[in-house]
Design goal:
Blueprint lengths: L7 E6 L6 E5 H9 L12 E4 L2 E2 L1 H9 L11 E2 L2 E7 L3 H18 L9 E3 L4 E7 L10 H16 L13 E3 L13 E3 L1 H6 L2 H7 L18 H28 L7 H8 L7 H14 L4 H14 L4 H22 L9 H10 L22
Antiparallel strand pairs: 1-2, 1-3, 3-9, 4-5, 6-8, 7-8, 7-10
Helix pairs in contact: 3-4, 4-7, 9-10, 9-11, 10-11
Length: about 375
């Protein structure tokens, strides 16, 4: 299948859980970007698959009740998104600037042609045009992730690797965010580096036909960078296969299967948050210290496509849940009425998360220094 033939996209109108419709990927993305398709009656929420597909998806869609779920065939894209999403919009803006500056240095031919969109909420989508036109493949999303992760490391930022799931959808340009009411708007390099968060929000108060900038020539380093990502993705696939083989012959019956599978292989997109929470709760229930739980689960959580702050939140929620369960089953004795019982209880619960303010000693001291 050629890149030209890989132009089937999955469109979602309305909330993300709405049904998918198959559309011409490039033409629809362009129409939303240049304003040909206007905000639909003020709601305007619309998404398009990150990747474009071929006739394989059409056949899968028809055979599965007009659903794209479970498709694992070839795909590709011309415009790869790097998603920067932070709880603090100012931090997201700073990282978007670092990433774009890095792309300008690495691919000087693309300077002025790197599209950046404010998401309408608290993040930015930085586009990298794959101008060397890598062919569609079943493993394309893995290569895309390896490529994006290397660019992010070079820039010293972290990107959301969940956008490289095969079926991932991304908000279309000039569509309204349902919570903030702001639009996904293109920012040129001057606006990105000149405007603060408040200025960008004002810029995103209305849609506009900004289009999508493109590069005039293929950046000289781009094909080699993509080839390096292909090799990295292949090596990672070999490592996963070896781990599966080792696991099949030496299962560890001491831990639940969902924990072992999460550590070895990861889980599907819709199960990531819940499974990470369960793993953290299980480890905490086995009296693993919080630091050990974070050390074991942080890297697998990020490798499975969750943002670092989301990984930390799910792990903390799992630990806290285990602590509440343990407290309910083992109530705290009154230290005045039963000092020996309280001491034994305190030893059993010494790994529990500290309550808010527990380390807020007077004058910033350690509570015991002279």
């Amino acid at each position: 299948m050629t890149a030209a033939a890989s132009n089937v996209g999955a469109l979602v109108l309305g909330a993300k859980e709405s049904p998918r419709a198959l559309v011409p990927h490039h033409e629809l993305l362009t129409a939303y970007a240049d304003g040909t398709i206007a905000d639909r009656g003020g709601d305007g929420e619309a998404y398009l698959s990150h990747f474009a597909f071929g006739d394989e998806l059409r056949r899968h869609y028809a055979a599965n009740g007009n659903s794209v779920a479970g498709f694992a065939g070839p795909c590709g894209c011309r415009l790869l998104h790097l998603d920067i999403d932070r709880p603090d919009p100012a931090a997201a803006l700073a990282d978007a600037r670092k990433l774009v500056a890095c792309l300008h240095r690495r691919y000087p031919e693309a300077e002025g042609g790197v599209p950046v969109w404010f998401s309408g909420s608290k993040g930015f989508h930085v586009g990298v045009e794959l101008a060397h036109a890598p062919p569609p493949a079943a493993g394309f999303p893995h290569v895309a992730r390896a490529f994006a992760e290397q660019l992010a490391r070079d820039a010293g930022v972290v990107v959301d690797t969940g956008v490289y799931d095969t079926a991932r959808i991304i908000r279309l340009p000039n569509t309204r965010h349902p919570r903030t009411g702001l639009y996904k708007r293109l920012l040129d390099a001057d606006a990105l580096f000149r405007l603060d968060v408040a200025g960008i929000r004002r810029h995103a108060a209305h849609p506009a036909g900004d289009g999508i900038p493109t590069v005039a020539t293929v950046p000289a380093r781009l094909p080699a960078d993509w080839r390096a990502a292909e090799l990295a993705a292949a090596a990672a696939a070999d490592a996963r296969a070896a781990a599966r083989g080792a696991g099949a012959h030496a299962p560890d019956a001491r831990a639940p299967r969902y924990l072992l599978d999460f550590l070895r292989f990861g889980v599907a997109e819709g199960e990531r948050h819940h499974t990470l929470f369960r793993c953290a709760a299980y480890l905490a229930e086995q009296e693993a210290p919080s630091a050990v739980v974070f050390a074991l689960l942080t890297e697998p959580g990020e490798d499975n496509g969750l943002a670092p702050w989301d990984v930390a939140r799910q792990i903390r929620c799992g630990i806290d849940h285990a602590a509440r369960q343990r407290a309910a089953a083992d109530p705290r004795p009154d230290p005045a009425a039963d000092p020996d019982g309280f001491e034994a209880w305190a030893i059993r619960h010494e790994a529990d998360p500290l309550p808010p303010g527990a380390l807020a000693f007077p004058f910033g001291g350690d509570g015991g220094a002279a």
